[in-house]
Amino acid sequence: MATTQDRQLVEQWRGIQNSYFRTASALERALEARFHIGLNEFEILDLVAECADAECRMKALGERTPMTQSAVSKVVDRLEKAGLVSRQTCTDDRRSLYLELTDAGRILHADAAVEHRSLLKENLGE
Amino acid sequence: MATTQDRQLVEQWRGIQNSYFRTASALERALEARFHIGLNEFEILDLVAECADAECRMKALGERTPMTQSAVSKVVDRLEKAGLVSRQTCTDDRRSLYLELTDAGRILHADAAVEHRSLLKENLGE
DNA sequence: TCAATCTATATGACGCGTCATTCAATGACA
DNA sequence: TGTCATTGAATGACGCGTCATATAGATTGA
């Protein structure tokens, strides 16, 4: 039996889906067009940039994003191939890796972040 | 320069991403486990069910979901192969198709919808 | 009525995310 | 110290969504 509450829930969920997709694809398109990176690549870059000088382990990234561990690993592959990030081995635990922005990565992130924030403002700021 | 507003926007966006992913994957897992259909399959089934007896054209579906036209086409492929839906040709425009739930589709949708609403309530109703 | 154009859907190539698995390094405990 | 379980990360197979295109049917206008 479809209750009124059910219909409201479905409406609410569709609203979330729409605003999520609208925003995500606006970000995706802009970042792809102007910086040749996908949204997930940017998100990881952004997280690495936030780490500042603290070591930024792969593990930590996995905890700050809904992406899977293996997705993170592949995103980092692409970022590394693009020369934006580099994997460094940890001396205190040789299973771990931490990430560093390259100079190119720092520059691209700075520019892309401006675009990113501005698109968020357009799409989220009502 | 990272302003306070920027940080708030990023926080807001991450919040949306998290709640979207959390909810979507809970739905995905449950529907997959109990009914052997994915979330998008269910969403289409749900839209077709909403059409009641009015003809439900593929075209119309495309307008009610963030999915691409070709994604809708493929989701319908799967639903049809699973025997939950059938494509009917329109007499007034032979390019168009409309969809009908099969009996199995109606039954599965009824059960899955209960589960779907209940998971939405858990995940969205605070 | 015949082109030229447009519209509804399908399809194939491709990229990416997920799952399951693997591998090496670490920890725990006897 | 040796075994067994655990952990951080990478990898390959696979499914799905997207983009660009194809195709058949409709529409327009001379």
UniProtKB/TrEMBL annotation, chains A, B:
<feature type="domain" description="HTH marR-type">
    <location>
        <begin position="1"/>
        <end position="126"/>
    </location>
</feature>
<dbReference type="InterPro" id="IPR000835">
    <property type="entry name" value="HTH_MarR-typ"/>
</dbReference>
<dbReference type="GO" id="GO:0003700">
    <property type="term" value="F:DNA-binding transcription factor activity"/>
</dbReference>
<dbReference type="InterPro" id="IPR023187">
    <property type="entry name" value="Tscrpt_reg_MarR-type_CS"/>
</dbReference>
<dbReference type="InterPro" id="IPR036388">
    <property type="entry name" value="WH-like_DNA-bd_sf"/>
</dbReference>
<keyword id="KW-0238">DNA-binding</keyword>
<dbReference type="GO" id="GO:0006950">
    <property type="term" value="P:response to stress"/>
</dbReference>
<dbReference type="GO" id="GO:0003677">
    <property type="term" value="F:DNA binding"/>
</dbReference>
<protein>
    <submittedName>
        <fullName>MarR family transcriptional regulator</fullName>
    </submittedName>
</protein>
<keyword id="KW-0805">Transcription regulation</keyword>
<dbReference type="InterPro" id="IPR036390">
    <property type="entry name" value="WH_DNA-bd_sf"/>
</dbReference>
<dbReference type="InterPro" id="IPR039422">
    <property type="entry name" value="MarR/SlyA-like"/>
</dbReference>
<keyword id="KW-0804">Transcription</keyword>
<dbReference type="InterPro" id="IPR011991">
    <property type="entry name" value="ArsR-like_HTH"/>
</dbReference>
<dbReference type="Pfam" id="PF01047">
    <property type="entry name" value="MarR"/>
</dbReference>
